[in-house]
Amino acid sequence: MTTAPSRAEAGELSGAVVVVTGSSTGIGRALASRLAAASATVIGCARRSAAPIEGVEQHELDLSLPGAIAELIARAAERGPIDAWVNNAGSLGRIGPLADVEADELMGHVALNVASIAEASAAFADHVRSRPGPGVLINLSSGAASSPRAGWAMYCASKAYIDMLTRTLALETEDGELRVYSVAPGVVDTDMQSQIRQVDERRFPSRQLFVEMHRRGELRHPDEVAVQLVELLAGRWHPDEVVLRLS
Q1: How far apart are CA 4 and CA 81, in angstroms?
Q2: 8: pLDDT confidence band, cut at 50, 70 and 90?
Q3: What HEC string does 30-64 produce?
Q4: Treating both helix axes as pointing N-terminal to C-terminal, what angle do 68-77 and 116-129 enclose, rounded to 10 degrees?
C-alpha cells in the first residue's frame, strides 16, 4: 500500500511539525526562522534561553541530560505527528591536544555531540514507524568528519560518528518511510568560528586557515545554509547520497 506523502514530502511545509535542536543561534536559529516563515509548526530547543523567534515554540533543554530527548519528542508530538527532525545542537568542545582533555569534559562532549544525536535519531525513527506517512531526519555534520586536524580530536571524531550513524540508519530504513541525511554545511559564520579564531595557534595549528577565510569573506552565512536545508526538508531536493557536503 502506498501512503500519502507527508506535508514536508509534498513539497511544501505549511502545517508540517518540525523539530530543530540548537535553535538559539547560528544555523539552527536561521533554519527555525525560515521554517516558521514557511508556516511550519516549529519546535526548537537550546541549552540556554535565547531571544524569541516569531512563530517558533522554544524550549530550554540540555539534550546531554538523561530524559531530555524523550521530553522534547513528547512536547513536539503534542502538536501532531512530527514530520521532520533536525539534529543541529552540538558544541566545539575544548580545542587542543587530546591529552589535555579532562575525563568530565570528554564525557560531556560525547553526551551532547554523540549520544544525544543517536538517541534523537532513534526516537524519531521509532516515531515515524509508529504512524502513517514518511518523515525526514537531518543530522548536522562537518567536513571535520573526514579531515582530521590536530587539536580537534573530539570534534572530528564526533562528526565522523554522525556520518556513520546516519549511513547505517539509512540502510535500516531504506524500505520504509524515513529519509535520512548527514549534512556538512561548509565553513559557516557562527559562534564556533569566532571561538576558533580566538584559540592559541599552539593548541590548534590550523587556526590561521580559518582566520584567513574570515578575513577574505569566505564564510557562509547561516541563512544560506538554512535555505538549502529547507529545500531538503520540503522534498524539493532529493539527493542520492546520504552524507552531503554543501557548498
Answers
A1: 14
A2: very low
A3: HHHHHHHHCCCEEEEEECCCCCCCCCEEEEECCCC
A4: 30
Report the CATH number at residue 153.
3.40.50.720
Answer yes or no: is 197 within a domain: no
Q: Could you read off the pLDDT of 69-125 as tens digits, one per residue? A: 999 999 999 999 999 999 999 999 999 999 999 999 999 999 999 999 999 999 999
Question: Would residue 110 count as lying in a domain?
Answer: yes
Q: Supply angle C-alpha 13, 18, 20, rounded to 5.
A: 130
Q: What is the CA radius of gyration of the chain?
A: 18
CA distances from 51 to 23, 24, 62, 64, 105 (A): 10, 7, 17, 22, 28
pLDDT in tens, 38-77: 999 999 999 987 789 999 999 999 999 999 999 999 999 9
Amino acid sitting at position 138: I
**Residue 166 domain boundaries:** 17-188+221-238
Rounded mean pLDDT, 136-161: 97
* Residue whose grid cell is 586557515: 209
Count CB-CB contacts under 10 A for residue 228.
18
